[in-house]
Amino acid sequence: MKRVITATVNNISGVLNRVTGMLARRNYNIESITVGHTENPTISRMTFVVVVDNQRSVEQVIKQLNKQIDVLKVSDITDESIMSRELVLIKVFSCPQQRAEIAAVINPFRATIIDVGKESITVQVTGDQQKVEALIDLLHPYGIKELARTGITAVKRGHKATNSDERVVLIN
Amino acid sequence: MSTKLRKKQTAVSTEKQMMKGSTMLIEALKQEEVEVIFGYPGGAILPTFDEIYQDGIRHILARHEQGAIHAAEGYARVSKKPGVVVVTSGPGATNVVTGIADAMMDSLPLVVFSGQVATSVIGTDAFQESDVMGITMPITKHNYQVRDVNDLPRIIKEAFHIATTGRPGPVLIDLPKDVSLETGIFDYSKEVHLPGYQPTIMPNKLQIRKLVEAVSSAKKPVILAGAGVLHAGGSEELIEYAEQQQIPIASTLLGLGAFPGDHELFLGMAGMHGTYAANMAIYESDLLISIGSRFDDRVTGNLEKFAPNAKVAHIDIDPAEIGKNIETQIPIVSDAMEALKELIKQNGVKGQNSLWNEDLKQLKQEYPLWYKEEPDVIKPQQLVERIYEKTNGEAIVTTDVGQHQMWTAQFFKFKKPNRFVTSGGLGTMGFGFPAAIGAQLAEPKTPVIAFMGDAGFQMTLQELSLVQEMKLPIKLVIVNNASLGMVRQWQQLFFEERYSNSLFPVQPDFVKLAEAYDIKGIRVDDVAQLDSAVDTMLAHDGPVLIDFRVADKENVYPMVAPGKGLHEMIGVKPE
Question: What pLDDT does A170 receive?
Fold first, then answer.
């Protein structure tokens, strides 16, 4: 299962290395990771998407992250009410005649064309993973020349909606 | 405590002085009341060694950095103080990597200073440069590279704090040469502020109550005591609690000594070469209480067959250990001593386990650890047993890794905490001898016996120089079976007796080797001389090395073969 985990960490050199090194040597599979500093420049926020087999593994990831001295707070926000977004740049093969067609395809996704070349156009789309995947699927038939994804970043909603799903509960 | 407070107060006078980085380092060590440091000089750490020269702080010059760090580990294990190591950059630092990894696995508090090339050339493959931060990141509790001399006092203070609190472990400080020569403000009075590091010391009351209830309703409870009890200094509490609740105790290798080996509730060591009683107790228990152990694979055997009927309670200061290998019903994140104190205070209703205790007592009598004496050869177990008897089990014992380590764990019944120094988690050959040096320095008046295999001893024997130089009265016992005994045993049992690279038909003359270092050397190959040789060794006022030629094909039994459950032991009785 996929879990979205966020961590606030000290914004000092080497922290990303500590965190990814730990995840790699403990055999966790990271699908994506995004890092950037927060409203407080001494603190960074990391968002991981990890693929784990079971609840116990999630607990281990969180505990091992917490063990790092430079990690301040870790949360599994998968089951929370969250907003998660990813930005993707897609360079699609396109002759001039196809441009209008592609523009029409991407329009409902609120994606934009940010560059036009002789043989290709570059589309930028922002959204949650499902939306992004759907657009990539639609653009596939035209031929994707290059694809760059940021990986998702996420925050909890300001207003808490109730959620009855099972949550990861940490001891103590 | 009062002396500590006084020293901290005198610190105020030196507060906020301007000084060089290297001076700060020594000043900080004084503030931390470090009595002895272990190390080896070299280019990048020269400024610090110059300071050591001028200041006169006690420095133990090992003959190899690995010797220095294992000695620091032995010192830390016995004294319960942090071991401090100072080495140079590049090869100096990489030579302590094994020791750092060893200390990490066995949770020993170390503060390691490694020199580094000047900040201006970091990243240019300068002479004796290596990425020590990168190399040691996964094997330290935390590590630092000092980029600004003004950060040095804070970093050293944090390093000692991190190394010695919570679950102890090694912390490394990488110190570039130019930083140690720069001048900055030395202020050691600030409190450590680490928002990301707040170990939980006190147990959750609700979980304690759950455990008390579980004990009350248990019919087959057993405690598995690990090194966490020793780190917490909770041996007395463990004895009190076990006696109060009448719960039998099994121990991990590293937990030996936390509970008296001759106590009637003691079942022995659990795991691969543990006692039949301890392993069966865990297998059949309905309540398994782990205190400061981490369910290592050498303790559990096959996880699927581990304690199948037991409710598991796990007391550990490191929350990440709880539920890591074994599913836990009652998790208690806490210092072992604090949890035990709370459990004793609760004084819950005793479980209905008198029948169980009787059964286990019988099992213990029926299946004792065994070996067969032979008239013409010394059995290694016999050797360990003799030394145990003749020292009344009072000595500090260090071991290397392998068969002799297991025999020592089996036949030396440790009565007191912190008398057993061994490399458990990492299984580092070459550990036992230098660790004995550190142990002897921690307790100069207590006899120290180093049990070593003939192979392991040859990995760090250069430290004989230190023994010679300091006249340390260590008793070096080579359990010489002219082979890598444990490797040979596995090849015999699981590789159809193909003894690939595990036999040593050619060996040095260990007696002459000892004599070359001005150390008394004796060779014993006759079982009739065993007793007198042990007497001579113990009576000798100074270092002595004895090359005990023991039975070369002896195996360690009983044994849980790899992949088997604890109840599937082989060799539980003489054939």
Answer: 53
Q: What is the mean pLDDT of chain B?
A: 95
Q: How confident is the model at residue A168 (pLDDT cuts 50, 70, 90)?
A: low
B333 vs A14: CB contact, 8 Å cut-off? no
Q: Which residue of A has its CA nearest to B204?
A: A172
Task: State the nearest Cα–Cα gap between B129 and chain A, in angstroms.
Answer: 18
Q: Name the residue among B317, A16, A101, B293 with its Cα closest to residue B307.
A: B293
Which of A18, A22, A43, A63 to mutate against chain B (most B CBs within 10 Å)? A63
Same structural domain, B250 and B362: yes
Packing angle of the helix pair B235-245, B336-346 (nearest 10 deg): 30
| Among candidates A21, A63, A69 on the partner chain, residue whose Cβ is nearest the Cβ of B197 | A69
Closest partner CB to A59 (pick from B141, B195, B323): B323
In this structure, is residue B559 part of a structural domain?
no
Residue B345 falls in which region: left (phi positive, over 0), alpha (psi -120 to 50) or beta? alpha
CA distances from B113 to B69, B108, B155 (A): 11, 16, 11
Inter-chain CB proximity A21 and B137 less than 8 Å: yes
User: What is the band of A158 on the pLDDT scale with cuts at 50, 70, 90?
Assistant: confident
Residues of chain B with pLDDT below 50 are 1-13
| Whole-prediction pTM | 0.94
Q: Do A60 and B320 touch (CB under 8 A)?
A: yes
Residue B272, in any domain of the structure: yes
What pLDDT is stored for residue B575 in this prediction? 80
pLDDT tens per residue, range A57-104? 999 999 999 999 999 999 999 998 889 999 999 999 999 999 999 999
Strand A120-127 with A82-93, pairing: antiparallel
Domain holding B20, by residue range, is: 2-186
What interface predicted TM-score (ipTM) does this complex get? 0.90
Output the domain CATH number for residue B32. Answer: 3.40.50.970
- Residues of B acting as catalytic residues: 65, 127-128, 177, 486
Strand (E) or helix (H) holding A122: strand A120-127
Number of residue pairs across A and B with CB atoms under 8 Å?
49
Interchain pair A71, B196: CB under 8 A: yes
Query: Is the same domain home to B319 and B465?
Result: no
* Cβ–Cβ < 8 Å for B204, B342: no
